[in-house]
Structures are given as structure tokens and as C-alpha cells.
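Input C-alpha cells:
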């Protein structure tokens, strides 16, 4: 599954902050209430890195965004429709931007097309 994330770096920072919080009960938006939030934080952090690693493996050769998105939809068994294209597409763009900012992926233009490739 690829969850909607607007800013991957900020999301990971938020997870770090939440992991350090203390409280009697935590009530996440999409999970059961729990006295220990650390396991859910680890799960979400692991998912982010799983998706990032999958994107990096797709980008072994220069590849355009549409193909990256297509590969991720196939890998995660998602069904393409307009809403999924917009939501997952936005998330994938966030991952690509974060990976580029962290030097893990590079971009180049070929024949007026932006291509992504693992650095």
C-alpha cells in the first residue's frame, strides 16, 4: 500500500517526534487506540523506506514519472483510476523530490522529458 504523504521528509520528522511522546493512550487516525505508539511509528517509518527502496529499484535506468507510477501500481496491486492517479501520483512525486534532495536519485532531460535515475 502507498499511503498519501505530502512531504516525506516532514512526515519522517513527525514520526520521530511522535515516537518520543509520552502519554497514557494514543488515538491514531487509522489504527486502534494504544498505550504504546512506538510500534505503529516503526511500522509507518518502515513503510516509507519500503516505498522509497522500491522507487529506487525501479529507477535503475533513466525512467519517466508515468512509468514509475505504473510500476508501483503493479507492485502494490493498485487499480488505476483518476482519483488514485492524483493521490498516489502526488505521493510518488513527494518521494521523488525527497530522494533527489537526499542525493539518492538524479534527474536528467532527454528529448524534452524529465527522467529519474538512481544516483
Amino acid at each position: 500500500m502507498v499511503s498519501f504523504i505530502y512531504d516525506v521528509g516532514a512526515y519522517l520528522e513527525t514520526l520521530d517526534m511522535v515516537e518520543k511522546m509520552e502519554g497514557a493512550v494514543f488515538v491514531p487516525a487509522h489504527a486502534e487506540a494504544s498505550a504504546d505508539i512506538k510500534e505503529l511509528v516503526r511500522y509507518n517509518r518502515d513503510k516509507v523506506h519500503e516505498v522509497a527502496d522500491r522507487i529506487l529499484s525501479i529507477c535503475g535506468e533513466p525512467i519517466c514519472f508515468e512509468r514509475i507510477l505504473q510500476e508501483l501500481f503493479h507492485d502494490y496491486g493498485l487499480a488505476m483510476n483518476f482519483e488514485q492517479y492524483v493521490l498516489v501520483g502526488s505521493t510518488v512525486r513527494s518521494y521523488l523530490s525527497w530522494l533527489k534532495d537526499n542525493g539518492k536519485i538524479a534527474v536528467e532531460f532527454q528529448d524534452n522529458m524529465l527522467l529519474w535515475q538512481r544516483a
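The CA atoms of residues 19 and 42 lie 8 Å apart. The chain has one domain: 8-118.
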